[in-house]
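Readers of this paper often ask what the protein records in our data store actually look like. Such a record has a labelled line for the sequence and another for the backbone structure tokens. The tokens are whole numbers drawn from a learned vocabulary of local backbone shapes. We quote a single record here, exactly as it is kept in our systems:
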Amino acid sequence: MANQKHISMQALRIVIIPMIALITLLSSFILITSTPPIWETIYDTAVPKGGKIKPEWRLDAKRISRAYWEDKSYTEVNQSLTSTRLYKKEIDHFTDVRKLIHLLVFPLGIGLSILIIWRWVLKQPIGWFYSLLYTSLLGITLAIWSIIAWRHMFRSLHWWIFQDDSWILPKGCASLILFPYSVWQMVGAVVLIALFLSLGVLSVLQMLQSRKSKKNLENDS
């Protein structure tokens, strides 16, 4: 019985809690990235001014992305565009994306609650190093996959997220012009880098805190 309890605690410390921490951080960074100031900075970096995207198209792209956080339908957003119009499938897709972004609040809230109870009520370490390890494995897998077959990775992830073909947009539609692959590659890179850096810092801080606590115990004894 004691051995089973030990195995369960090890599973929580090494796998379950670090994975919850990873999902919580990932949800938070996706939410932050989708906010207009961050998203538009990424967009301007991925799609430099003076390139193929005309100024009026850039403004329409930002109108579409800002609507993720606005209380208006994408039908209204479509009517406000000045350089193009969206097909119904595009309107439906952006509506689905907005719903998914807002749904991320739930894993974020649940994850934070679990981590707070685990760390401050049960007094257990979160295990940021394991979260960093799992993120490294995920990052390496996605990096290799994107280098070998970016389009295949993009399509596969969309199938997994949406569970249908609603994200497959008509060829030559406005969305594919306004949001080229370079935008999504930049977004993915920003989220992964932010995840790596935050987990790296948290891992180092936890390691230093552990060494300090161990040293204090040795001094006390």
Notes: The chain has a mean pLDDT of 91. The chain has nine helices and no strands. Residues 181-220 form the longest helix (40 residues). Residues 139 and 192 are 7 Å apart (CA to CA).
